[in-house]
Amino acid sequence: MRTYIEFEKPIAELEAKVAELRSLSSDGSNVSIAEEIGRLEQKAKQLLAETYAKLNPWQKTMVARVSERPHCLDYVGGLIEDFTTLAGDRYYAEDAAIVGGLGTFRGRGVMVIGHEKGHDTESRIKHNFGMARPEGYRKAVRLMEMADRFGLAVISLVDTAGAYPGVGAEERGQAEAIARSIDCCLSLGVPMVTVIIGEGGSGGAIAIATANRILMLEHSIYTVASPEAAAAILWRDKGKAIDAATSMRITAQDLMDLKVIDEIIPEPVGGAHRDKAETISRAGAAIEKALKSFDGLSADELREHRAERFMKMGRSI
Question: Which of 51, 128, 309, 313 has minimal Cβ neighbours within 10 Å of its Cβ?
Answer without folding.
Answer: 313
